[in-house]
Predict the structure.
Amino acid sequence: MLNVTLTNHETETTVTLEGRMDTVAAPEFEQALAPVWDMEHPQILLDCQKLEYISSSGLRVFLKLKKFVDAKGGQVALSTLQPTVKEVFEMTGFAKMFQMK
Amino acid sequence: MKTELVLKNDIREIPRLEEFVSQTGTQEGVPPEGIDMLILALEEAVTNVINYAYGDGEGEITLTAERQGDALVFEIKDRGEAFDPTQVGEPDVTLPAEERQLGGLGLFLIRKIMDGVHYRRIQDTNILTLTKQIE
């Protein structure tokens, strides 16, 4: 089960991820990002403190988001990662790709 | 003891796979972080079979788990198109985002997590064996 919550602040949008992002859940994450794909100046904080698990289908959406935000000249940062997710990010080089907050 | 799980080639079967691997790992005394890594490797391997082995048709995937000495041995069998995932090239995980392609990390993760990845084709069956040393 994955819960995705978008919260708009003045200049930044926080995307809170809770639960497990497996092959079944990753498309739900991509769909929940719909408002982000319309942003002209995306400033995104991905709150992953309660994200317990991620597979390659979830990483695909993270990369898609990063590519989109970079192309728009925006910013995307990650909060603290749980150990399992952190290990996957380190194995795949994703840890270096995202700014950590 | 060898345990077995039969799955349809449908992504919605993935939670059943996660449950099966979790139970296997727990029974064999794998710590929780290790169990998530096992689930990840098996999810990646089975997702590939679900997405590609049978084209648009329906088919079954059989997963077995067995303790062999100090190792946990998983076998994934399907009767779809012949495909040897061990022959797929490695992605470059040092590239920045703009030079990366979407996808291609599943097999990479399987190789990183498991100690052994072996493929064989026997008659009309693909057999992928994933081995993980425990203790």
